[in-house]
Amino acid sequence: MSLNKYPLASSTWDHNELDAIKRVIDSDRYTMGENVQKFEKRFSKYLKRKYSVMVSSGSAANLISIASLFYCSNPLQFGDEVIVPAVSWSTTYFPLQQFGLRVKFVDIDRHTLNYDLNALKSAISKKTKLIVVVNLLGNPNDFDEIFNIISGKQIKIFEDNCESLGSEYKNKKTGTFGDVSTFSTFFSHHISTMEGGFVTTDDEEIFHLLLSLRAHGWTRDLPKENLLVKKNSNLFYESFRFILPGYNVRPLEFSGAIGLEQIKKLDKFIKIRRENAKYFQELFDSNEHFIIQEEISESSWFGFSLVIKDSSSKKRDDIVSLLKKNGIESRPIVAGNFTKNEVIKFFNYDIHKRLVNSDLIHNNGFFVGNHHYCLKEQLNMLLEILSN
Is residue 208 among the annotated active site residues? Predict the structure, then answer.
């Protein structure tokens, strides 16, 4: 465990992951191969999703997901309008900027930390071609209402589920609602390959696009029968045949082998995280100073957010300093109101109405970690420090 009394994240590995690494070393095959393929199949089975493509990170997953929507049937075009929540992680937004989309920032709900659904509804215009749905800190969005809002409209859904593996909306796993959806298996996430990510889809054409975009834009990884090209039976000519302006975001065999061990533990990890969350809710639900995240359906509880109420005299800087002094790690709620970051100068964007709740989260919000082990002692300590 970290030297901190209450770290932000902790390793979920044991001898099983180390043995998996050793097996890869013994095989002398390190580039993407059999272990990655097995993990992809296992990941799809867990989600009940047709296709899963493993990549080098959740950020890379977001990148090739947006790219795939520019090359599929009825593709996005440069300058199309995309609606995003104003609070999310940086690489939720960066591919949108890099592909020339016009980004419209919409406020979030201060309780759920997901879309303010009234704001989302009013933000949609005839120009809207894509909505980015982010399940923040493990919390599902209200997908029934979102699909009701876009009913009859030609709008695609990109679901960023990087923080929310294992969460469910009405008994259906998140990461299965988007035309294309993404996950992260970074160190601090629900399962960890240290670096890694996934893209999932039920669309076969998008699946084939992702396979090509992941590795140089070539045809080599496409199945013989695919929806993009007719492959030459002579493998020599398919070795270096490029059809898309792709990337190299392939994972290593280590990542696949480790992931196969981690996913065996996922249900247990989620169960403990939810038990921790229940105790956190008991301690803080009626706190006079803090708003805590309101769960929609079944969250997988990435972490525990606390937002200082407008009526409170507490100051975030003082709290963060006090937590640090007492060995409790904390962070801003992802990137806060993203439009407050300097990088926004590179975006083609609009702000829909006022981002009141996003500003509150930006100025008054912070979160502490959740883990795969019981946190009663740490949460009691957190409450005592914040109460004093």
Answer: no
